[in-house]
Amino acid sequence: MARLDVTEMFHGISFPGHLHTQDSLQLALKCQFQDTDILIVSYPKSGTTWMQEIVTLVTNRGDPHVSQTVPNWTRAPWLEQYYCTATLKASSTTPRLLTTHLPHHLLGPALQGSKARIIYVSRNPKDVVVSFYHFHKMANFLPETGSFPEFLNRFLDGTLHYGSWFDHIKGWTSQAAALNLLHITYEEMSMDLNGTIKKVSSLLQCPLLEDEVSSCVKHSSFNSMKNNKMINYSLIPDEIMDYSKGSFMRKGQIGDWKNIFSKEQNEYFESVYRSKMQDYSLEFMWERQKFEDQPI
Ligand code: PPS
Fold first, then answer.
1. Rounded-to-integer distance, Cα 294 and Cα 296, Å
2. What is the CATH code of the structural domain delimited by 16-293?
């Protein structure tokens, strides 16, 4: 399944045809969730892979064997990607660990009444757009980026692959009370990985001893993951991900947007952000300091 130049339009959102088909997207919406399922939900570049590693480690009580021997797309397949059904059929692991980038307005109906445990991972959107921009440069299954200002406009318009960041976060977080949903931010993971791991272990009712928590912290650190070929995407051939143009585990920092946003781009971003998020009380950490000092 190469289809590197194919785009699938689904309910007005574009998806890379290398990983999605109309059938696979349709099947995701009909997923029969089990109450024991663990579902990681995120807009791309928000810390998805990091959370896949954390959940794998927590459910294995800090033992890195699975995370070092099974690729992340096999142990935590994306529900909407074409190989998901076959991967789930071939696996007998319970609880099932699933991942999705789908927005709530598409996947919500399938989750109605379900007790599946959902971990929603978000990241400040300035860092999301920068990470996504760099990822587009190396991922040959994503369209050409154009210049950064063009890419930023498409992000703010919601016309990039996977749709609008604003719709995604508003849709999922506004439904948190109706779902069994834990919202964790990338920034929280970065500032307090130990605390994040404890929150995840509590949600999954998987109590850990202190040395098991420490092992989870150690193996989900940026450097451990960067060197783990089961999670750093180095198993993917060069013609699909071009490593001469970057790496998946790129910088892993809060506030990298400052290295690329101009003053004008930042002002424009903040005005769009304010108007689209005015009824939502979410706060993000925009750089590595206290919430009170943040610009928005
Ligand atoms: S994807 O393609 O949607 O699955 O990408 P996603 O995993 O959501 O996001 C990739 C970014 O997460 C960073 N990352 C980490 N940062 C810090 N610590 C750890 N352990 C970690 N693991 C992944 C990764 O480097 C990407 O961010 P950028 O800013 O590009 O470095």
1. 6
2. 3.40.50.300
